[in-house]
Here is the input.
Amino acid sequence: MEQARILVVDDDHDIVEAICKILEREGFLTACAYDGVEAVEKLMEQEIHLIILDVMMPKLDGLSATMRIRERRNIPIIILSAKTEDSDKVLGLTMGADDYVTKPFSPTELVARVKSQLRRYMSLGDYETAGKEGELVLGGLRLNTDKKQVLVDGQEVKLTAKEFSILEFLMRHPGKVYSAEEIYERVWHEDAYSVENTVMVHIRRIREKIEINPKEPKYLKVVWGIGYKVEAIFY
Amino acid sequence: MGKGWENMEEEKKNVERKQELTGQMENGEERKTDKLGKKELEKKREKKNSEKRKKNSASRQFFVVLGFLLGVFLLSAGVYAGWTTYYDSDLIEPFVCSYRESDMHAREVLDAFQNMMDRMKFYRNSGTFFSGNVNYGYYIKLTDTEGGKIYSNMSDDISKIFDKNIRSLMYTMENLNEEQSSGEDKDTFSYYDCYRWDAEGDTGVIYKDYEESRVEVPEDLLVSKKIDKLGICFSEDVLREKQNAWNNYAVFLVIMGAMLLLGVILILYFGGKLFSYRKITNYFRRCFVEIPVALIILAFILLYLCYERKISLFAAANHMIMLETSLGSMQLVMDMIAGALILTGCFFVLFFGVYLFAVFLGEKERSVVSFFWFVYKDYRESLWEGEERKQFLKRLRKPLGSLGTQIAGIWKLFWGVFSGKSIKGSTIAQRERKRALVFAGMLLLCVIGMAAGSRSLLAAHSYHVGDIKNQWLLSVSFALFLMVTAVYLLGTIRNLMDYAVMEEMIQKVYEGKYQEVGAAKKQISEDSVCFSDMEKLEQIGNGFEKAVEDQVHAERMKVELLTNVSHDLKTPLTSIISYVELLDMEPDLPEEAKEYVSILKKKAERLKTIISEVFELAKATSGEIQIEKKEIDFYRLVVQTLADMQDRIDASGLKIKEKLEKENVVIYSDGERMYRVLQNLMDNALKYSMKGTRIYVELVSEDGVVTFTIKNIAGYEMEFEAGDITERFVRGDKNRTTEGSGLGLSIAQGFTIACGGEFAVVIDGDMFKVRVEFPVVEKG
Here is the structure.
């Protein structure tokens, strides 16, 4: 893999410097910009593989910049924001961002997300085989029913048989919410009685394996008080 | 069109021009030209239209004014005719009266007779009722003689007087006389014997022509003798003649009435066109038009009564010949009619006076409007504005001097008292009560005056001796009565009107339309009775408005502050965390420094948690939180939460005792928030429980309420009140050694309430108990 160049955009110089340093330690090349307009300019000048973009910036804010960038380039965009509401996240993602990280973030998590996005982006070629028989694809999550294999952003994850079955069942119906009983009956093929705990524990384990931050899951979500679902992701 | 209208139109145009300009400034070049062309076209069209309108309105105006003036003329003619009719009818009355006072002096009676004959002469000469000679007879009964004597002016054909009616009447009288002479009721009635009169016909004084009509009574009548009874007779044909004459007069009355009616209709119709009733904003204002209209209608009714009375009177007279009507009371009615007519006339003069006054000022346009000057107050006020008024007042003041101000002062006092303005009193009820008392007092005065006046009038009519000095008392009292009533009513209406506006203002305040309160107040002049109340109301409205504005502003500030502070805290914290991380990655750090860095890392993480929780709580309590309510299963939620926190529970070494109901535990709430609530409660229990104790988690559904309870034994002494623990930043252990922001319970409480549930903390010794309640959603 050639060295990826990452553009870091934030109006706070210190944050930009810190992020750049951390990324450089991980072996990435970096470029800096301090507002939306500069970011768009930098994007024209250099070859950039990923952008980390702050939302609240002078001249051109992050969301507008995202939209502009999307008009020209298809590179991954990770949005940084101090806004933590779900609605803000949804807005950012619908604007064309690939991921949303809330401030204050932990540098390790950010690096993990950057790597994950780059893997998906760089191994884009593989995606041409997406949707082939026996394979379920949802965002960066790929599940091969034949090989009993799960790939998260191109990296294999080891799941137990039950975990795999649960994930497979939910991935076959993305966006649909299933109760613990329904999942149990489908996966265990037994009558469900007091299975909430069992299912929940499994779900938690799957999450810990496939999610970058299990507390803010991207794929497998608990619908509190109702059931579980796999988010329908189409990007 | 008048000055005001022109000004208004010009202003409108100006505004339009301004709008055009701004519009052009905003639009691009292309649109500008396009718009200009369009505008020109529009302008031309408008000009055309307005010219047309002007022309139309000019001719229309002419007809309207003409119609109005015609109406005024007809009305005045009608009123004048009514007036004269009344007086004419008054002149007829003495013919049909009789006298029955026992202690009347003969001299007075003769004077009355003489007066009567003078009147007859007047009528003969004027040719109104009679033509040629009129024959009449009269009789006089003295108290101290056995019988009376009948005198007549009939000479040539004395038999003429003995027609059927007279005979029969006299026969009756004779019978009466006979009855009385037989001994019964001797004191009351005694009539002249007509046969005796007939027999000694030559003893009566007979006149050939009433040109020489003089009542001659024997000397013995004049001296010391008291007249008991006195009567006048006319021959039937004379009365018929009178009847016919009156019938002619009746036709005149009808025509007059029609004129009056037409006049009123014309005034109302054209008046309405001229004064634009659309300016009359509510029904109360319309009263000012409708009251004079009602008065005019009243005048009509009275005129009709006037006519009716005369007709019936003469119809009766036709058959009775001799009348003994008690004219006194009728006279009172007639006087009232006269008073009403006078008042109507006064109103009319008032209208016309104001009109002329306005013409004098040169305000022709407004003058027409001012004809109904009380119709629309604004016009009245505008009429009084400007230089003309000052000049006019100067001119007026010179000749009138202080008299005008005196009169104005009296009127002001009068109006003030009756409208309640100059009555002191803190409340409307007090003022109204006082006003009503003053009105009642005035009414009493009027009634006394009228009673006194009518009494003297009655007496005068009974004697009919022409001495009716006190008639003015009745008229004045009655006029005063009408005036007092009218002013009181006007004052009441005015006050009611103002109260209506006040009610409107109250409604506006109630609806929260504070800006409209001031606008409503403008409908009322400063001298209104409830002006001060309205000012207070307006101030209340303004206060409310300001309070609401302030509140909205404060609320917005709070949210903005929250967002800004959140951002401002998070940005440096991001740097801190990042650089601490970088520092941690540094390989050549001494051992001590590494330890420091790890502490920094931990504290930075904690700061991060606290900051995010603080904002979460702030949002929850300020209502900025977004709640997405769904039907959720409380049981599932609890189990999911417990499973989610399994490793932390295991790590704590504490045991969880669950007792959870599964049935009827569906609630309507936000799952994500409620997860946070349960998570915080569990966290709290795990953090502060005594080592080796058990945590009891219960879910009970009872009477439509799901109750979640979590109980634990505190690992320290709880020295606080149950209510305090949910206060922000309050933590159980006062020395604050444990990790945590101290916001967990507050957030749990805030979220629970925001989701529609109830939250309670109970402390019992070392047991700490939290209860969360939600209403159950009934299935189906």
Observations:
- Residues 16 and 77 of chain A are 15 Å apart (CA to CA).
- The interface with chain B takes residues 12, 14-15, 18-19, 21-22, 25, 56, 82, 84-87, 103-108, 179-180, 196-197, 200-201, 204, 222-227 of chain A (CB under 8 Å).
